């Protein structure tokens, strides 16, 4: 069964004891038989998307199992859509992290930039608290490419189900769904084809994230979808 | 390897059918390879210490490997002290968790005094929620004031785990419980600073799947000895389980 992780990162992270090393990520992937990981440089989230995207591209160029995620920052978006068009063909998706990057979800430049990005690339957006997903719905609604919700946890489950029922192009990743019963409930209500394995490795443990999915009680077919097939289908 | 989960909750979860009763807790433990679990009644922490603790007590008697941590609420001191007198002498209650109205806010030491004094004769560890640095600061103050008690810092400071480690370095009556931030760096940092004998594995279930919490140990570079201490040996000693289970 192929395992593909849609949410990993590398680079300096102030809260970590040291840099999240690419080798650390690759070592974990090998240990737990993860065939591919979508990844980004933390530099892009914490400081400068251009520098971060270059670092991501370089790391992924060197290691074929790593697939590049670009970052963009709406605080630096002044209406020039070439920041998006330059990413097409180079990166597999675009990531926005409002909390980390320092803006609210209810933020017009974010809406414009996500809409521009999601015309041609899948987009992953961090959500944190009740109301975030509803705000995101108001901000972007339906877009041509997939929207992946990152950070969904127990108190966001009801909002996630509600939003995903309305938006067939919206998906959810599992890095914060490390809670009993949630993955099974989501598979039964919105469908296993809408759930993607994400681990936030190497900051967070890879072993527990994969085991949580394996022990979630979903069917073998759903397991195959969640652990890898969905990522391949949606992100290429 | 036996696993003692030092922090899990009864009730209070968004999905039905999870940790609502002893059968569900035990089913989860069995599926995840947990031998013993220390339960806190979410009902007691969030609503009513009297009924919550009593329901927990009734449940503990029905399940093997289930233990309880009594909840004492600083906003309801009198009934909390009564619950301590009524229940804490029981073998199945291994400690007391002090909670306030908002778990994200530090406890007030003056209000905590009466509860801590009531606990003195039982010599059981005091659990304090430490989801952030501010709560760690106040908890550290309590550990220095009440040196006769052992304290468990539940969640070891959340993403401020460095503060919790620094606190444990200052006061030897602090134990760090590992639920909180799922940060692969924190256990190694804690063992480097204070050794492995004052760290307790806790999942925070059902707010986190125990298997995900155990992943923190599985992915860490700690020695087998350190892992063994953290997942069960330290808890056995702290809670004197050899006497409790004799």
Helical amount among residues of chain B, as a percent range?
Answer: 40-55%
> Number of helical segments of chain A?
11
- Of all protein chain pairs, which has the greatest interface, and how many residues does each chain bring to it? A-B, 27 and 30 residues
The strand count of chain B comes to: 8
Q: Whole-number radius of gyration of chain B?
A: 16 Å
What general form of chain B does the structure show? globular
Helices and strands of chain B, in N-to-C order? Answer: EHEHHEHEHEHEHEHEHHH
Low-confidence stretches of chain A: none
> What Rg of chain A, in angstroms, do the CA atoms define?
16 Å
Pattern of helices and strands of chain A: EHEHHEHEHHEHEHEHEHH
Question: What percentage of the residues of chain B does DSSP assign to strands (E)?
Answer: 15-25%
Mean pLDDT of chain B: 94
Helix content of chain A: 40-55%
Shape estimate of chain A? globular
- The count of DSSP E runs of length 2 or more, i.e. the number of strands of chain A, is 8
**Widest sheet, order of strands of chain A:** 1-2-3-4-5-6-7-8
Q: How is this structure best summarized?
A:
The complex is a heterodimer of chains A (236) and B (246). Chain A has 236 residues and is of the alpha/beta class. Chain A has helices spanning 22-31, 42-46, 49-62, 82-85, 98-101, 108-117, 132-140, 157-166, 182-189, 206-214, 220-235; strands at residues 4-10, 36-41, 66-71, 93-96, 123-126, 147-150, 170-173, 195-196.
Task: Summarize this structure as a short list of keywords or feature phrases.
heterodimer, A: 236 residues, alpha/beta, 8-stranded parallel β-sheet, 11 helices, globular, B: 246 residues, 45% helix, 17% strand
